[in-house]
Design goal:
The structure holds 3 protein chains of 3 kinds.
Chain A lengths: L12 H20 L11 H13 L2 H33 L1 H14 L8 H8 L3 H25 L3 H9 L4 H38 L6 H10 L3 H29 L8
Chain B lengths: L1 H14 L5 E2 L3 E2 H27 L10 H13 L2 H33 L1 H16 L6 H8 L3 H25 L3 H9 L4 H36 L7 H10 L3 H36 L1
Antiparallel strand pairs in B: 1-2
Helix pairs in contact in B: 3-11, 4-5, 4-7, 4-9, 4-10, 6-7, 7-9, 9-11, 10-11
Chain C lengths: L1 H19 L12 E7 L13 H8 L1 H6 L5 E7 L2 H10 L5 E5 H9 L4 E5 L8 E5 L14 E4 L4 H12 L8 E4 L2 H10 L4 E4 L5 H5 L3 E6 L12 E6 H6 L1 H19 L4 H8 L6 H7 L5 H5 L5 H16 L16 H9 L19
Parallel strand pairs in C: 1-2, 1-3, 6-7, 6-8
Antiparallel strand pairs in C: 3-10, 4-10, 5-8, 5-9
Helix pairs in contact in C: 2-10, 4-5, 5-14, 10-15, 11-12
Chain lengths: 260, 280, 361
Amino acid sequence: MTVNKQNYFVYLPWRGIVFPVILILIWQLIYLAKIANPVFLPSVFAVIEQGHRLIDNGQLWEGLKASLYRDLVGLSIAIFLGVSIGIALGVSRLAGKVFLPTFNTIKQVSPFALIPLLSFWFGLHEPAKIAFIVVSSVFPIMINTYEGVRGIAFDYVEVGRVYKMTTFQLLRKIILPAATPSIFRGLHLGVFFSWLGTVGAEYFFTAGAGLGNIIVDGRNSSRMDLVLFGVFVIGITGYLLNIGLSYAEKRLLHWQIQKQ
Amino acid sequence: MSETLKQEYQRDTLKRVKLPNFAGIFSIKKLMNLTIPFIFPLVLLGLWQLASDKGWIAEQILPAPAVVYQSFLDLIDSGVLLEHLIGSLTRVGIAFVIASILGVGLGIFLGISRRAEAYIAPLFEVYAQTPVIAWIPIGLLLFGISEKLAVALITIAAIVPIIMNTYKGVRYISKNYLEIGNVYAFTRWQTIFLIVIPAALPSIFNGLRYGLTQAWLTLVAAELVGIDRGIGAMIVEARNLFQLDIVLVAIITLGIVGLVLDKLFVLVERRFLHWQRRGL
Amino acid sequence: MKKTILKFLSVFIAGLSILSSLQVQADEGKPVVIRIGFPGTGTGNRPIVGGSPLSTAHLKGWVEEEFKKDGIKIEWNHFKFAGPGINEAFANKLLDFSYEGDLAMIIGKAGGLNTKVLAGGGVRIPVAIAVPNDSPIKTLADLKGKRFAVQKGTAIQLAEVRALAKAGLEDKDVRAVNILGANATDALQTKDMDAVISIPYSFYPLRDRGVAKIIYDSQKSGDTDIAIAGGFIGDDAFIKKYPDITKRLLKVFVKAAQYSSDEANRNELFKLWGQDGTGFQYYREVYNGATLAERQTPLLDEYWFGRFKDGIADAKKYKLIRKDFDVNGWVDKSYLEAALKELSLENNWTAYSYDGKPIKH
């Protein structure tokens, strides 16, 4: 019986904090020793102070809200499209053969290259950013769902056939549950790419509110403390999003026997 | 005896669709399998042509296929496309090699040592979820606007799946394998090289493959920050000069080259892992 | 499972409604909104840009005032990617009017955009090249083989190729890299770029901090053929559909141009424009030795035509556009003339001939 360490958040946190703390100390030492240009490597306290300021004047909250909103809307659309298309492609072998090669090619193209095309369909502001997020995250979800459906051991499907289930019942009772680990793998990727898309959209599209914009503003006014604080918040938020998904996964899959 | 078996076989195969077989090499089924992947792209091409004929989308945003094809030929002729492609491939290549070495090494380390895992894994998790874009301002600070920055950004992004998959592969090796090592009283290094790595190899290759995909995807973003040779740079320049046909050539190139890289990697993977299948 | 599906569906529908809200439905006689653009953003990405009659009109709120009684909203768009971004917006039918620099306008039109030039405003704008303070680069010729930051597709790029040509260099001889706005000036500080070309006031803060020095200023060297020209353009479809609105918009533009050309308003004006982050002092410095009128004139005079004819020829020569076009068919002077007449400002500005000499009436 091996301990299942897939859920990091169950960890005792203090050992995990040691390393980051050491890094922060090194950072502060570099700053104090004035090895790097102070404009570009501010003191740890300056960053914390910036953070304080942003929290106080509500900017952090505004940015966070805006970014999360964009992210979740885009992610939801991507999940809806990705899972449904993935299942459709997985169930119908023909559809899979027809569409999958093309999707495999499209997924190699970075969404950043598609920005000029997106502006046509979605304009310059929020809808375009959300579309960008959808494009960034839909393919991992779709492909992993497809693989999950395709990779189901034939035995499971046989059981369904024996019970003379309709396709829909087959779907609900056998295919989806069996494909769920794969689907969740895709969802993890989807969460990651949607957050990547969110920050990317805020960096490269027109101005608006968001965490990415905080970094851009900091960069433009050469306030590295602002930038570093922004990076920190972005990282933590991405991490929390992933944790949230893992938690949901754990709840949904508690009946799964862990493979060894 | 062989006659009846042959008859039996023929009877069985007749149940499936009987397709003509040209000289035993070319079966229509094989032909169908080769052409099916192209149906959808051809439909899209047709839609594209229709859209530009009817003017559904402004020609500045989506130029007609013929224009794009012409630009494609021009770019190949002038050698420009190849130049940019080589620039991009070099960048991805270097970054991928660095990411692979560091990634596999770190992944093995994290997988073997519980203590290392306890100390490093949480920070790594946060790092893994941070979009590459967030590192751009910091990267600019450390590397300035240079080739090194682009390579660094790609490495930062590509190393994540490599580490994660390597770690998972090492961590979840069947206990049985490790017991064999105990039985033979392997040293730590022997265990690593003779048992851990081979057993984790499928996962490692999986991670490397994802890493390659990530590297290719991050390439464009990394090149947006001021590089003069590369597909991303080509896109930026063409977009600024309002030549979206060149942008489309770049996009299609990105897709196809990316696909080719992926398929090549799978071939390499198969060669390395062919012994695995026999084991099963 | 069902609950999650429902949740996703509702968000999906919400998403769709967001998407559908982007199309602006115009009714028969009047548009619901007029969308106007600016190349570039102010410091820290703020949506304020000074330096042209359009800026004045924006900052004084005169356009909103004019169209308030019709209930028409005015949407101001500041494009981080400057000219190229504006061109894309026009192509996507997301913009109705804009101020643009010469090269960007030319590229757009050559690329097939259906725009019409309605007025000038923003001509003889100088450009400068700056290098890090301790750089060995002293003349234009020294730029050979160096990393040169240029905002490609904008009027700055045209000035760049022209300036290089003066030193006998070609774009190929330098390593021209495309950098977005503020990042370029930062690059001087970190010495990632050997040189940057831009409008002079971008460099003044760095110069005053001792970080960079300006090695070339087109105004100081008297290179009037390198100065940037610009204009006010509009989407032809919009103009044809709403000629009255266009006329009234030009009226506001001309009024703003008059205000921006009146020397009595000099200090006020610099304070007004300075809100984009450049500040009063630096606007004053970049206008040192120049009159307001000569840069803010909205007239489409011979000089303007000459600059643009040259611009088109040069753009074609340096392979920035693939086919040229006739500037005459591109311009529609009627709205400008109507506005001048209505405000009785026909003689407010001097018209100049191609070689820069005033035309005496």
